[in-house]
Amino acid sequence: MKNAYIWVLWLINTIIFVLSTRNPIYLLLVLIVLFTLGNHKAKAQHRKAWIGLNFRFLISMVLISSLVNGLFTHIGLTKLFQFPENWLLVGGDITLESLIYGAINGLIIGSLYLSINIFNLALSVKQLSRLIPRAFHPIGMTATLALTFFPSIQQRAREIKEAQMIRGNPMKKISDWLPILLPLIVTSLEDAIILSESMTSRGFHAVSRRNNANLAVISLVFGTFSIFSGWILNLYAYPQVISIFLYVVGGSIIILTLIKKGSEFKVTHYHQVPWQKIDILLSIVFLTSIILQIISAVFFENSFSYSPYPQLSMPSFNIGGVLLSAIPILPILVSDHD
Amino acid sequence: MINIEGLSFKYPNTSQYALENVDCQIKQGTLTLIIGPSGSGKSTFLRCINGLVPHFSGGTISGKIDVFGSDPINDGPEMLASNVGFVFQEPEAQFVFDIVEDEIAFALENMGVTRTEMHARVDEIIERLELSSIRYRSIHEISGGEKQKVAIASVLVTNPKVLLLDEPTSQLDPISADQILRLCVSLKKNTDLTILISEHRLERLLPYTDNVIKMNNDHNLNMGSPSQIIPHLQNLPPVVAIGKKLGLNPLPLTVEDFPKNVSSNRKPGIKLVQPVLQETNSESILEIKHLSAQFNQEPILKNISFSLKQSEILVLLGKNGSGKTSLLRSILGLMDSVGEKFFKSQNFSDLPITRILNQIGYLPQNPNDLLFAETILDELKITLKNHGLEKTDQDLIDFLQQFKLAEKLNQHPRDLSVGERQRVALATVTIHDPDIIFLDEPTRGLDYTAKNQLSLLFKEWRNFGKGILLVTHDVEFAAGLADRVVIIEAGKIIFNGSPADAFTKFPAFHTQTARIFKDSEMFLPEHVI
Amino acid sequence: MKKTLTGILTNIFVFLIGLLSLLAPFILPQARNTEIQSSAFPIVVSLIIILCLAIVFIETQSSVLDNKMIAFLGVLISINAGLRFLENAIPGPAGFSPTFFLIILVGYFFGSRIGFLMGAMTMFVSGLITGGIGPWLPGQMITAGWVGQTASIVSYINNKLHLKEKFGEVLVLTLFSAFWGMLYGLIMNLWFWPFLGGGAGSSWSQSASLLENLGKYGAYYLATSVIWDITRSIGNILIMLTMARPFLKVFQRFYQRFSFHSEGSKPS
Hints:
Chain B is of the alpha/beta class.
């Protein structure tokens, strides 16, 4: 499943679900799913200790979150102990519920991090760059160059360090790094000149022929402002409809502007990502899941919610939630072709 | 065809012309060799043809250039891109993408070619240049020669009419260089591509060269057929030098051209001079005993033993991957190894290299790696400071005389030519008067004059008592210098002896002279009378 | 630098919007009645920040980003991403980050837009390289972008005070980098804050006043990251004092030797 767009759908689906539930059962399920999928992908790429690293991160997030919430929020009925009331901010009851609530937040952060991490593992740099709208072609090229150059710059830094050490550089103070960084940057910039000559000689133009950038920028600003206002109004409990309208207007302006800007770069792509049947199937599954979640969130009460307040209780679960938690595992069924 | 009339060009912020009133015509399908000392304008000339000069470089230009109907001066390099391909000197610096086939497709992507057409053209060029085995590889994994091949493929993919190559092999070892030059020859033979290549390595190309352009120091050029230009060069390739000496007519330009009867020594009147072996009975400064090293569980050095004496220039030869670099790195302590290393009878096998630093000087493969100060004087002072030494400014000026840099001591090292920068780097690693000097490929990118100057310098040092260990691919350079030769193959020493034996008995390291006069003891033009 | 009206306006807009989004938790505590909204909070903030980034990118592309600058930036970003690894590898005090001095110097010399790109793309590329893209990447990108962007103000100041080529120039840059050493941490935590909270009974409460919320944030900041930020500032000071002058000289030489498009920013 190599297509970047499918993975985007997967990511959106996973994120929406993770953010909309505070049910620790679902979250734990999702985490298990993510660790399994991630491990599978990491092994295929010979990345060591992927699970270990990410697990440590998860635990630290849970702990931090738990502590922060526990110390600062004093709601809940199960008191663990009490700081004197007059202590700044932490004064008051430290309750089990708020610790649990914080821990759940940690699980959410961990899940978000894991999903993005898996997204990054699943797609190569070239595939990721396909996601960047053509309107950003020059910036995308800058990033590509930075990535391509990285190994050779590392190598060169090592060589310079050796040469300077043999010349007698003690490598103790910060200023001892100058003999390494300066030649590194000078030689690399000289290479950059050659690189840009090479790119130019092969027809790369960064500056698009027509320069009506001002119009594009203004419309993007307008679109962003529209979305921003929609959000603010929503927060101030104005009717939902107004916000949705603003979102749609803003979003459309932005998308249209980007498409128009993109068409100014007459660039085609060498790589064609083939769509296989399974790809289409999975996309439909993810898309449906996303739509269903949005609908249920907007029109129905969230049936996947859970709150430890006011008193800690066992979370319930239903088949819908379990299914949604499991959907992110689907990519594991598809082996990477090519 | 390419038509140039009255071309003059000045770089920005300079008053001197880089090219002055240049006229020339180059016909389609020809191979034109561009030669000349560094700084004479070869790169500038090439860049005029595809418009990089003046559009990229800035500066003022006048005159007319016509490249198969296009006007690079007015149109600029992006417009010329589909018709003119440019290959640069640094293999690494040309790549945008990580994967070989992506890089090849880059030019087509920029031109908005349809996907099907792109695939067809990329497949075709990969086939033609025999790159299928590395098609999906990362460019960081392939060799220098392969990189340049990919660079050539990525410009040929647009089916250009003109191919420009700016010293494409100067950073490559001889085998890779040969690969590239043979590719150029095959392009010349099998297509009607118009090729302009600036090069120092002439031999492979000369049989197929139609024109030679010699850039002069007066910012103009001479153009003619190889036999018109080559014999009048200041620095003659060995073949030509010998031919001249023997008074041959017509003058042979390549080893194959050399008349067989002469080379087999049957023509009367030619006396062969045996080279004199230089024996030294001096002390050994460096002794290496039973040195072995591994990398990733693979042995790369196997039981190496040799010594370097005072007043000796020892040349280390070996193919790429033979272990030369590893040997040097092991001795310098940059790589783990087992075995014994003695410096003037003092065992430094287990000492960190820092202990004996002030006795050794090391010039790395990329001398630019060392330079970072504002002036040459400052660079020298930095090394002195590192070693806790002090010298007066006058001492330093005197020191710089031997490098022919004394007048430039306040110049910024990066503003100097390649050869001068090389010598600055050399000065900074020898200012503390070390007894041993290690040199790793010092002749990369240097022209004949610069190489000759280096050669004289090393001989002077040797006469002064220093021991010099020279790792190089440049056989002609080494032949003119070596007191002794060590040849490494697959991590083992397979030869340790006289230069005469090394350069005449090992085909991989034959000099041109040795190839002309097979089975003789001659390996330098001077040996022929 | 040739500042167009659009350029200036977009700079201001992006800055304001970005800032507002970050401060929203403090200014708008009475929002978020439903769980969905509060969970979506960090996502919407991310989205808005991404849009702000897009605006600056589009603007920069059409003004200062020509072929040479692309290669230049690409290489500089690559070097800076490498320096970021040193951040993890050097056994120095936590928070010691050699990444910022290059961002500041690039913004200082080449102008606010290039500086912004340098900061934002360094974060992006090093995230790609390590595979450590977290949901806070947009926040990192825009904050690092601001570091580079505001560095051009320092250039303006140094000009006015006639400090160029003197030690004073380096001093002002050093103070600036120390300032950002602290501010970066402060802003990044602001960014992180909504992830830790949101929803009923969260780290800030809906009915609490602005001051109380600020207080909670302050305590959180003190507890978690102030040590990091102080070491980062100290690190920045030391690095900038040593590296500023030589690096600026390098930029100067390159600028002179390889003439950049007149559309691009000139050193002020």
